[in-house]
Amino acid sequence: MTDENIDTSKNPSIDKWVWLLYRTLYQNNWSHLHEGFKTDESYLRELANEMDYMNDEANNVHPLNLAKQSMLQSKNQLDKFRQNFAVEMYKRQTATTGDVNLVLEMIKITIQSKEYDEELMVLVEDSISRKETEKKVNTLDQAFQLKGLNDGRPEPKYIMPEHIKRLVPMMLDEDISMAECIKNLDEEANNHSLKTKDNKGLWRTANDQPRPSIWTMDRWQSEMNKYKFTALNDYLIDSMHKGRVTLDERQRQRIKRNWNKIDMPEALMVNPTFIQLGIGTLKVGKTEVIKANKNLH
Predict the structure, then answer these.
(1) CB atoms within 10 A of CB 5
(2) Residues 174 and 116 in one domain
(3) Residue pLDDT, tens place only, 81-93
(4) Are 10 and 36 in contact (CB under 8 A)?
């Protein structure tokens, strides 16, 4: 098959694949400064889903697809991540079908090889116990998460609020205080309030961003507490992709004032070397990965 005959509609984007790796498994020189920088689990979920899609022969992803080639070049490390993540989601009872099938395959292999991995055997024991002790679990399919307790429930989507996405670059690129940024976004939201009384959600800002909604100060503070390190992490990585690999003194001081007094390095560096995630623990080195603080939509 020639390049002209490749069905690109089924080919995952190499840009999105690299975007995910930078936010999940690649090492950088600032994540050690605060535990909030540790990989946001919603990005781990996206990475796992992307791997499942490319590994599924039914999706017919072309072998020359750049994202698939990148995945295969680091197969051992990425497969280990995928197993670790599946076990962790299974333990939390938030596993997808792909997670469950992978965990069951791992259990099957450990039994066949007579290695009897202790953590996997605990999963088996706990799953069987759920059927015996939990009233809502009526079958082994439910106990082993092969069948959900709420069939038809859509998988949750994790979305960072547009306000926070816009707030961080406003603060750091325009050297504006958080209070002033919030004031500007609130004014923009108020400018749209009359227009949207009968047409809510359809108006957009001039730069084609989703229009801001009106937040209380309590909402601003709670959302910043949830998302500020993920948003800053995204900002730093996106800056590097745009060729801005240094932070000036004003940016570093503004980060220090608003992000728990951390001292950012002047030069930003990302090393395409994979961090190690321990099975079932989702740990980076000796620091536990932080749960995603996301609204479920």
Answers:
(1) 7
(2) no
(3) 999 999 988 888 8
(4) no
